What we know:
88% of the residues lie in helices and 0% in strands. By secondary structure, the protein is mainly α. α1 runs antiparallel to α2 (79-94).
Amino acid sequence: MFTELKTSHRLHAGFILAIAFLLVLSSNRLYHRHFSTLQNSVNSVYDDRIKVQDYIYQLNNIFHSKRLRLIHQEDYMAVSNENKRAEKLLSQFSLTELTNEEYDALNELTLQFGKLKTSEEKILQFKNLDNGNTKISLQGLKEIDKKLDILAAIQLEESKQMTQLSNKALESNLLISKLSLGFLIVIGLALLALIFYPLNTKRHALD
């Protein structure tokens, strides 16, 4: 059948096949890029948002325990372990991918935590004296709560943006898939026309 094609038809068929090959290659490249974007978004949501939400939750529990201790003036023996846990969580937090706002809030939180530790040390030294350190510590905890609220809000906003980015990548892949299928159908029909048209022409000529 292909041997009966004229040279011009063969050239046209080769041109169409080349277009089909380039279309498939381009589609594959776009699929790969969009799936990479989707994979990075999913990984980032877990590593930089879900895990960070857990860090914030644990920090919130630690500072809540500190507040109760200051109010009731008891159980000061747990301070050292709490501070070690908080320092580890803050260190893990700092290793995640931070936005500019998140970076500033985390630095301020770390600074407030440092001041809180200084106040706690003074309370441990003079725990039987009312030297104002308890009040200072409680005020510091209020500032810490504000920073934790800011950081928690950032996680929600960033997770939302990453979800939207993932959805756009999926929608783009779906659109490309539909367009590629449409072009391949058109190319297939064009090839069929080039293959069978010369035969039909020849038969009409014989008739």
